[in-house]
Amino acid sequence: MALIAVSGHPGCRFDEVARFSAQKLGFELLTQARIRTLTREEFGESAKIPDRAYSALVTSILARLGTEHHIVYCAVGGEVQARHFPGMLRVHVVAPENIRIGNIMLDHRVDRAAARQLLLEMEAADRADRKAKFGKTKATADLFDLVLNSEALTTEQMAELIQTAVESSGLKERGFVSQAAEAQLQFQMRFKLSRYGIVPPGNITLRKKMFANTSEEIFANLLDFYRIAWEYEPRSFPIQYHPDGTVLESFTPDFYLPEFDLYVELTTMKQSLVTRKNRKVRLLRELYPHLNIQVFYQKDFENLVFKYGLAERPVHS
Amino acid sequence: MNALEIPGLDRVLFTGEQIDARIRELAAEISRHYQGRTLKLVGVLKGSIFFLTTLARYLDVPIKIDFLAISSFSNRSGSPGVVRIAKDLDESIEGEDVLLVEDIVDTGFTLRYLLQTLAGRAPNSLSVCTFLDRNSRRIVQVPVDYRCFEIPDRFVVGFGLDHNQLYRNLDCVAVMKPEK
């Protein structure tokens, strides 16, 4: 998915630049107002979104829209939001103060003194909003791929420059967000939202992931990095029954990767315990021959994390 | 560089001569398949460069070369983000017969991402050629059309493969000693 995040100084009409760009590119335009509408639709009319949950909320919306559209996203902090998506172009529109005051005079039909006062208020509100939602008051130039000065450039020209940047960087050629990547992002974001008590109607609550050990957490991070959807210990398989039919022993693989219909078991333990685990895996394979399961032994895993620079050297098993 | 004189290395898995002979065989096979066509070799930086350049010299069909690199996963600084293209191709691959050249395929994570990315750019064909295939660690089933060697689950270096950016220039593939 191509994500063009357009933000700018108050009074420099960056929202107009975003709208023109979306029209030229044929991308979906996502504005602050549309986010409010979508939030009401998704989480109910009465949902109150705390500032700290805002980022997760917007990422969730972007992930959903990104499965079908390329997006121009126009709101404060768009450059921060864009980091979750690979095909991004972060655009910032700036202008000297006198230009911005002139714009405010025209847009709000006020005189210069009132426009100057209004600009100061807008800047203060912008800083407070950014601080509350993203923890920073300023957006510095290094956070953007393209900084446009509207002193000499018209809105039309700036939209053309954005279009050129999108085409030359091949962003349009990217596919939309895959179902699996969306599912993974939704899981992460909804997990964050659930901490603030925000759940979609129907009260879907997300179980907090408590990994049994660091290896599992690293593995989950690795899957996240490659945008591979996963579930943690989603299912237990009975592997031994009492003659009366009650389950004596079950086996719960660590991960399930729905995209590949594959269970993964990490066995990063001492050899005496591995023998027991191997027995369980063997029983599992016998009883459930259709099941795909990949076992990662200690050495496999250490070499894997070693490859990714997470350990200094592979360790003897 | 003589691999056996390097303290951190355990043994040589494939000698320079074995590698050269195998790449010649593979190049002949690839040349037969792409007879009459121009092949675009896309190398994944940095590990594949030694293999790609050797392979390219033995191919009998016209070739073009391009490279890409992807961001690497590191858990050390908190959230690792998501994989992305760190260095993109210089030219479009639309309508081209593309052979993606990898140094090693193990879990299949990287290759899956690359194939998804490149397939969306409308190449005429897209195949995969890897120097080493560590099938035992495969999680994601990815199509590997050409492979030089299958290897056991050992940490190997040389002929482009590194440990902390070292050992790439070994003319052989060697197994690293596990730390005591």
Question: What does this protein structure show overall?
Answer:
The complex is a heterodimer of chains A (317) and B (180). Chain A has 317 residues and is of the alpha/beta class. Chain A has helices at 14-25, 32-43, 51-65, 78-81, 97-108, 112-134, 155-168, 179-195, 214-225, 271-287, 298-307, and strands at residues 2-8, 28-31, 71-74, 87-94, 146-149, 231-232, 237-241, 247-251, 255-257, 262-267, 293-297. Chain A has a five-stranded parallel β-sheet. A four-stranded mixed β-sheet of chain A has the order 6-9-10-11. In chain A, strands 7-8 form a two-stranded antiparallel sheet. In chain A, a hairpin with a 4-residue loop joins strand 9 (255-257) and strand 10 (262-267). Chain A is elongated, with a radius of gyration of 25 Å. Chain B is 22% helix and 29% strand. Chain B is built from three helices and nine strands, in the order βαβαβββαββββ. In chain B, the strands form two sheets. Chain B has a six-stranded mixed β-sheet, with helices on both faces. In chain B, strands 1-9-8 form a three-stranded antiparallel β-sheet. The chains are: A alpha/beta (317), B alpha/beta (180). The interface between A and B is large, with 38 and 38 residues.
Q: Strands, helices and their partners?
A:
The complex is a heterodimer of chains A (317) and B (180).
Chain A: E1 2-8, H1 14-25, E2 28-31, H2 32-43, H3 51-65, E3 71-74, H4 78-81, E4 87-94, H5 97-108, H6 112-134, E5 146-149, H7 155-168, H8 179-195, H9 214-225, E6 231-232, E7 237-241, E8 247-251, E9 255-257, E10 262-267, H10 271-287, E11 293-297, H11 298-307
Parallel strand pairs in A: 1-3, 1-4, 2-3, 4-5, 10-11
Antiparallel strand pairs in A: 6-9, 7-8, 9-10
Chain B: E1 9-14, H1 16-33, E2 39-44, H2 49-58, E3 63-70, E4 85-87, E5 97-105, H3 109-119, E6 125-133, E7 146-150, E8 156-157, E9 173-176
Parallel strand pairs in B: 2-3, 2-5, 5-6, 6-7
Antiparallel strand pairs in B: 1-9, 3-4, 8-9
